[in-house]
Design brief:
- The complex is a heterodimer of chains A (about 375) and B (about 260).
- Chain A is built from 12 helices and 4 strands, in the order ββαβαβαααααααααα.
- Chain A has about 375 residues and is of the alpha/beta class.
- Chain A folds into 2 domains: about 100 residues, 2-Layer Sandwich (Transcription Regulator spoIIAA); about 250 residues, no CATH class.
- A 4-stranded mixed sheet of chain A has the order 1-2-3-4, with helices on one face.
- In chain A, helix 5 packs parallel to helix 9 and helix 7 packs across helix 10.
- With about 260 residues, chain B is α/β, with parallel strands linked by helices.
- Chain B has a single domain, classed as P-loop containing nucleotide triphosphate hydrolases (Rossmann fold).
- Helix content of chain B is about 40%, strand content about 25%.
- Chain B has 10 helices and 10 strands.
- In chain B, the strands form 2 sheets. Chain B has a 6-stranded mixed sheet with strand order 6-7-8-3-9-10, with helices on both faces. A 4-stranded antiparallel sheet of chain B has the order 2-1-4-5, covered by helices on one side.
- Chain B starts with 6 loop residues before the first strand and ends with a helix.
- The chains are: A alpha/beta (about 375), B alpha/beta (about 260).
- Chains A and B meet through helix 1, helix 2, helix 3 and helix 12 of A and helix 4 and helix 6 of B.
Amino acid sequence: MSASTLVPKAEVDLEKTQEVTIMRCSGVWTLQGIPLLEQHIAQLSWPTSGSLIFDGEAVDSLDTAGAWLIYRTLGQLERMGLAVTIHGLRPEHDALLQLIKTHAAGERAPIPPSHGLLNQLGRNIWRHLNEFNGLLAFLGEISVAMLRSLAHPSRFRWRAILYNLQIAGFNALPIVGLLAFLMGVVVAYQGAVQLVRYGANIFVADLVGLSILREMAPLLTAIIVAGRSGSAYAAQIGTMKVTEEIDAMHTIGVSPMDLLVLPKMLALMVALPLLTVYADILGVLGGAIVAQAQLDVGFADFLDRFDDAIKMKSFLAGLGKAPVFAVIIALVGCYQGFRVSGSTDSVGRQTTASVVQAIFLVIVFDALFSVILSWLKI
Amino acid sequence: MNEANEPIIEIRHVYTRFGNAVVHDDVNLVVQRGQIFALAGSSGSGKSTLLREIIQLQQPASGSIKVFGCEVQGMSGDQAATMRRRLGVMFERGALFSALTVAENVSMPLREHTELSNELIDEIVAIKIALVGLPDSAGAKYPSELSGGMRKRAALARAIALDPELLILDEPTAGLDPLSASSLDELVRHLKELLGLTILMITHDIDLLWGVADRVAILGEGRVLGEGTMEELSKSDHPMVREYFYGPRGRAAWDQTWNRK
């Protein structure tokens, strides 16, 4: 390479005679050299007829980008009706130009037309219906796998279940406990202002007990677990799908349902009710502490009133939701994991979808529970 | 091109360890401009590690690695950027960005390192995709929609996007059917002749070693067991090198090559 590589530049000069135009090219026709030239070529006053001689004798170096630029420019000139002859190119440069010529695409594939608004709306609705359909089918598959395992309890993967119990349940204790405690504090605090106005301080136990036990603790726990574990399920299964581990399992004759899905679901069905009870306790504790600090209701008075006001059925109404939420979270997480297709990008998308859908369904089912329980007057 | 003895890669006394495992125990290699240099050797002989050290993804424990005459260790950011611009790497499993289409993958180095107009970049990308033997329609596809062989070609298209002086190929033909593999051989040789490329590749493909490589180095026991043309190496009396040539598969390729001659 000569010193010209330091300031790489490609140049074109047009030399016009009466009939013939000579296009004299020189310099470094490489990626570094051609950026300026690209605009320069467009501004040159090209002849519109006659013949043109391309003189490449002074071209120092040429790469595929440079060769393409030559090919493209000459092609445009030929289409305008000029007779183009190539002259003086070094053999290796000429070979490169030939290479480009043989590989230049004849026609570009047309860009598919974009869809209209209504079309997209229809597609989206169809996609969501399909997805819901798939979710139900997946639930069916899990049920079948579950029944099969119940018939042969030795098929249960106890190690996997215990492992998942630890990951999804035990390891979630600190965060669930902290947030439940704070939720109890917030509920008692908000209620305190109203209760003091009526001198009804003692009813803080009713307020905290009912709201935490029936609604807050199950819902809060389910949302935290959906964010913690549901997303992890989707990401784990999704990544295994990308790396073809799921396919490998099939060929070995291990059912991914038995090995991956059932243990997660069973573990969560145990872990979520336990976490809910734990959240109940810490939520009420938070409320009791605020009651003493803000409302002068001592622990003994609080517990006394709590015992009178809160019936067992309120506790059970809250706890009863937890296994249902557990099924939803595990179902959506695993289902979205299996929907991952091919790329790592898709893992991210399905993981997000798993959290959003799980929380959405948890809240929908919570509302359904409220309606049903009030019908049943529980 | 002036290929008269201009070393592109110079590896001197390189030692590498992972914990207690010694990977390289005094490795010395020189790759000259315009050569197709192949690194062979059994699995775990440190070929990929050496390659990662050349492209600065890993550091040897000691020793010197020079690429384009510059020491790669302790390079300044600018120097490293210039070096990266001059070399293209094709990874074993392609390492295409799965969130981008093939065309976007190939255009990424061009957009990053040149100031060409988008239109020209798109055209150059189309040419590169055609050069590696992919159909036009492949450009708009995502890597996950391609077969293994096509993905490999797409990875090669990205590696040659900037017309690098040095092309590094990690197992270019692994996982390809014989037909695709031989057309890739052809392509590599073609590119080398036309663009004056220097190519360093890791390969187990005995056909590639016989048919394409100018020089071959066989790595083993942490060292270069033998280096030279395939003919020279076939006369080596090192047991591991002989294994390479006189094992059942080496034998077949050997016979084939001689019959061809």
